[in-house]
Fold this protein.
Amino acid sequence: MVASAGVTTPGSSADDYWRPPGAGDPSGAPNPPGAPSPATAPSGAPNAPGAPLGEPGPTPTSPVGYTGPPPTTPPPADWHPPLYLQPPPPRQLPGQDQAALDLAEQRAQHLTWIVGAVAAVILLALSCAFCLRLVR
């Protein structure tokens, strides 16, 4: 274990890395020693480390947080997308023979039962053969 793994600076938290520059600690704790507070920073100083010198950061009059989407204007009430082609009406489906459908469904059900019975007989025979080998 590394000796400095669990050590933190007094007045800082693990979330400080993810906070924007100058945000400070939301719980009201003072900034770490040696760090300038946002209120005492010079007005022409850059806000982010690595920012070009001489360029000021964002103005303090910018809104804080998400202000929502921009306003939209609804279209007129009688507006519709242009219609270039009128589709034909749907065609009539052919009729169904219910008696033939019932007969085909019964045949399919019988085939399913036969296949299941054959599989069960094969599994029973294999189980019996396996048990006889264990007994001997």
Notes: The chain has a mean pLDDT of 77.
